[in-house]
Amino acid sequence: MSQLSSPRTAPPDAAKPLTVSQFSAQLKGLVEGAFPSVWVAGEVSNFSRPQSGHCYFTLKDEHAQLRAVMWRGSQAKLKFDLRDGVEIVCRGSVDVYAPRGSYQLVVSDAQPMGLGALELALRQLQEKLGREGLFDAERKRPLPKFPRRIGFVTSPTGAAIRDFLQVLERRWRGAQVLVIPCRVQGDGAAKEIAAGIELAQRIVPTLDVLVVGRGGGSVEDLWCFNEEVVVRALAVCEIPTVSAVGHEIDVTLSDLAADVRALTPTEAAERVVPSAEELRDRLGHHGQRLAGALRRKLELSASRLEGLKKRRPLARPHAWLEDLARGLDDCDRAAQQAVRRIADARSQRARALAGKLDSLSPLGVLGRGYSLTMDAGSGAVLRSVKQVEAGQKISTRLVDGVVQSVVG
User: Is 179 in contact with 152 (CB distance < 8 Å)?
Assistant: First the structure.
């Protein structure tokens, strides 16, 4: 074994070797004492974050690798997500793990290389929420045309609410505005904004539209409107939402999640309520168009009425009844003639049938000298002498009567 030496220690003594534990302890003290704080740049690889919340990864460049760890408390302060492929500059201390004879960098802070931490965090969060569909155009809802109750989540002392109310007073006085106070910058502002959005949905009577915003400021000032808790609260809000954050050049994730983005709080008032003056002008224009259309309709109806008055049914209304009366008379005469023709035809047919019946009638035969003899008791026609016997009463029918006799 070799023994560590320093200008202040004695030369190594082979007779008194160090144990592995002693050597590791001395090495740990030297290394950790020499690097109490160091800045290291490299690319993150082999990144993992178990349930404990601590981050384990490797920093590497083209020629070497360095194991690193970032405890959960330090990682929670980062403005961006650590992941494989991200190049960072990190500050930390060297930690020697004696039981394994290994060392690692304990990272206390990190910054992305190239992009700023806030910009990188914004891109990462936008990609994450975009994949979930929180910014999809299909989710956007239209604002009500004539809102009666408007909520505004903002600072009650900021310029945003004053500008909003001034424009609202000038454009439309038919709406109530309920200010839901919260901080709009600094630590904890995002949670207050999200809580204000949730509170707005429980207000009774229900709000018709909800505005969330503030005036302009630096990226850091507006950062709370990029926080995930605010974006998610806007995305799931049951009330149609308007994001009115910052000046025209500032775009936050809240702008992307809300149903409508207003460039400024002033424009938010213009987007939320109509202009009473414009509505009066529009109503006047529509009234003129309606009056003109009614006049044209009246003129057309009068012209048609004049045309109808010149037609025969209206010019001579009794002529139509006279024509109907003449028609009825003609029908009556035709019906009488038809009845007479039918009666004559049937009378002739009856006479013909009577002649045929008369020729076939037994009375006609009797008129020619014939007679009809019947048994007086039963009325049976006698056709043979064998049907009679002495003393039998018979009736003989002649053309002009009946003769009663007794067979002798």
Answer: yes
